DNA sequence: AAGTGGTCTAGACCACGGA
DNA sequence: CCGTGGTCTAGACCACTTC
C-alpha cells in the first residue's frame, strides 16, 4: 500500500476493507480474516489494520467478538436501530416498517442546497409507517436523489421489509450513516393525524436527519414524526465506553 | 505503573490523568505535558498515553490542537453544549441559564432505583430556566443525591451562572458525562406553561437524561422541557469522524 | 492447544503551528 | 527552526473463546 497518498495509511486500509465488503467478499455476520492476515494482505502492520477496523466498528459497519473474530454487521434502518422504551425505562422494543408510497418529485431550493443538487434535480419521496406490535407509532418521509438511486421500485423496498438503508446498500452500494440529527416537538396536523391514525393536535416528536455516505457526502434527507405517549425514543449509542 | 492490575494500562493512565486534573495540576485551557513527557512520567510508551488521551478527548475532557498541544476542556452544561438551530438549519445559538430553585426532597422508589439509592435518600431538586436572547425556551429539573453533593448552595450555583455541571466538578470533583438520553413530545401543563411563559398545550420536547461519572456510576437525573417552535435541539456530537 | 481480538513497547518518521 | 500531535512498524504478550 502506497505511502504517497494524502490520506493516512489506515484510511486507505479502511477504504480497501469497505471495497471488499461492497464486492461481497464477506457476507453479513461472516467473519473477516484475522487482523494479522489482513495486515499481510495489505502490506501494513496489525496496529494499522486495527485502527481501520476500529473506525468501521464505531460506524457499526463491523462488530467484534473477542477471541472469535470480526464480523460484517447488518444494515438495519435508522429508526429500527433507535430503541423505543417505556418512559419508566427498560424493555426497548424494535418497530417494523410498512411502505406507504414512493414517488418522484423535484428538489426545490432548500433540499437542493442541503443535498448539493440542482434545484430541478429529481428526488424520490418515500413515505413509510412505523409500527410497534401492530400499533402505528411513526411516519417517516425520506428524500433520495434519483441520480444516486436511479430505480427505486416499491416492490424492492417491500422485499426488504421497508428497510431503505439496506436497499441503498444492497442495490446501490451506498452505506449510509447518520449525519446531523435535530429534534422538535410539533402538533399533529391533519395529514399526520390521518396517517398515524391519531388525533389532530397530538404532540409528536419530529426527527430531522441527514444521512451521509462514508466519504461524508450528504445522501438522504429524512423527517420522521413519532408518537411518544407510550414509548420514548432513545437514539442508538455508537462507540459506547472506550 | 503496575501491570498487575485488572485494568489495561491505558485505563490506569487515564485515571492518573483524571486525578491530576482533579488535583488542579493543569487549569482549564492549559496545555498538558507532551505525550512523550507524560509517557516518561507514567513509565509507559507514548502509544499508551495516546490511547488514554483519546478516550478523554472522546468524552470532551480534553481537546487537542495538532502541532500545539493537548488542553483541558471546560465543563459547559449539557444543555449549553447542545446547539439550538433554526429549523431550516445553520446558525446554532447557545442559551444561558437562570436558577429558579434548589430544594431537598426524598428519592422515592423509581429515582432510588435509577440512581442506586435507598428510597428515603435525600436528593437536591434543582430547577433552572434556559434562555436564548432573553426569550425563555426551556425548563430543566435536575436531581442530585445529597450524599454525593452535600452542600448545594444557590449562591454558589448563581456564581457559576447556573452551570451545574461545572459546580459538580469544581466543588465535588465529579466530572459528569452523558449516559442515556430519551426524547418525547409532550403538551405543556399548567406548571410548565407558567414557568416557560407560554400557553398550556404547546408542544414541548421532553429530554430525559441520566448523567454518569467517569466510572459509569449514575449520578444525576434530569428532565428538561424545551420549546422548539423557533429553534430545534441538536445534540452535541462527540468524537465525529475517526 | 490453537486462533482470535486486545494491549503494549521502542523507536521512527511525518504534518502542522508557532517562534 | 523546534516541539507538538498523528501515524506506523515489528514484534511481543495477554485474555478470551472454541475445539
UniProtKB/TrEMBL annotation, chains A, B:
<dbReference type="InterPro" id="IPR036390">
    <property type="entry name" value="WH_DNA-bd_sf"/>
</dbReference>
<feature type="domain" description="HTH gntR-type">
    <location>
        <begin position="7"/>
        <end position="75"/>
    </location>
</feature>
<dbReference type="GO" id="GO:0045892">
    <property type="term" value="P:negative regulation of DNA-templated transcription"/>
</dbReference>
<dbReference type="InterPro" id="IPR011663">
    <property type="entry name" value="UTRA"/>
</dbReference>
<keyword id="KW-0238">DNA-binding</keyword>
<dbReference type="Pfam" id="PF07702">
    <property type="entry name" value="UTRA"/>
</dbReference>
<dbReference type="Pfam" id="PF00392">
    <property type="entry name" value="GntR"/>
</dbReference>
<keyword id="KW-0805">Transcription regulation</keyword>
<keyword id="KW-0804">Transcription</keyword>
<dbReference type="InterPro" id="IPR028978">
    <property type="entry name" value="Chorismate_lyase_/UTRA_dom_sf"/>
</dbReference>
<dbReference type="GO" id="GO:0003677">
    <property type="term" value="F:DNA binding"/>
</dbReference>
<dbReference type="InterPro" id="IPR050679">
    <property type="entry name" value="Bact_HTH_transcr_reg"/>
</dbReference>
<protein>
    <submittedName>
        <fullName>GntR family transcriptional regulator</fullName>
    </submittedName>
</protein>
<dbReference type="InterPro" id="IPR000524">
    <property type="entry name" value="Tscrpt_reg_HTH_GntR"/>
</dbReference>
<dbReference type="GO" id="GO:0003700">
    <property type="term" value="F:DNA-binding transcription factor activity"/>
</dbReference>
<dbReference type="InterPro" id="IPR036388">
    <property type="entry name" value="WH-like_DNA-bd_sf"/>
</dbReference>
